[in-house]
């Protein structure tokens, strides 16, 4: 697998679907992670840390399950970064999430986005330029279960990120 550490103008984008949540809650927005989901998010965090990934910015849906996914992920990875919570990520489509990513400060080199499906899976597929890891790209297309993540690299400023402009370097499903 190629190095996932950003170099020169390269940016790293991690798109993550939240971990497994309870099937009930007062509202869908308020659903908590299941115990299995917390463990899976921790496994994903450890995997990202093993890859040498350390985000300097994170966009996280304001839903309870995405916030809890971030907490377990970050704790397991050893990250102390406070995420930017976004109400719009809860119901956003791929184009809206892409716009949010484009609005990220150019100082950020590695960005983690935690959202919901089918949006996360669609966006990962839409950004894929076809030049990356063919196995990772194929696995991503075959299914995007809870706690699945795609790592993409992009050479340029976030504001220039466009469809088919990022390279898939890894696809991983966090499982404890």
Automatic annotation (TrEMBL):
It comes from the Bacteria. GO terms for molecular function: hydrolase activity. InterPro entries: His_Pase_superF_clade-1, His_PPase_superfam, Mito_Ser/Thr_phosphatase. The keyword Oxidoreductase does not apply. Keywords: Hydrolase. The keyword Metal-binding does not apply. PANTHER family: PHOSPHOGLYCERATE MUTASE-RELATED, SLL1549 PROTEIN. This is Phosphoglycerate mutase. It comes from Nocardioides currus. The lineage of its organism: Bacteria, Bacillati, Actinomycetota, Actinomycetes, Propionibacteriales.
